[in-house]
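Researcher: Good morning. I'm working through a list of sequences from a screen, and I'd like to move beyond sequence-only analysis. For each chain I'm collecting a predicted structure so we can compare shapes side by side. This is the next one on the list. No need for commentary yet; just the structure.
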Amino acid sequence: MPKINFINSNKQLEVPEDSNILRMSLRYDGELPNRCGGGICGSCVFKAEEGAEFLDKVKVQERRKLGEEWLREGYRLGCQTFVTNGDISISWDDAFTEVVKKRKPDKLQKEVSTI
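Model: Good morning. Structure tokens for this chain:
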């Protein structure tokens, strides 16, 4: 089973594959800040310090709230992110969280359906 290392709270959790980062933090007191859980407020932003390759694909909500630059730097939203099949270490910064919360979402081009 993968492990999530919550650096700020000094907690390491063994979790089932495909577990949501925020839900695991709430369930096991990982202390990741949070408010809405829907990818809108940005309060659960974290940085993948290690193991970013073991996180699932970036969601539309994350692209809108964080933008491509912050995503490239390893930032993700805990409410939208799932750990796949490896260990990860995450951290968060309260000052940066406030910046993210105040950021207006990017407007994305309409996605073309390939159905």
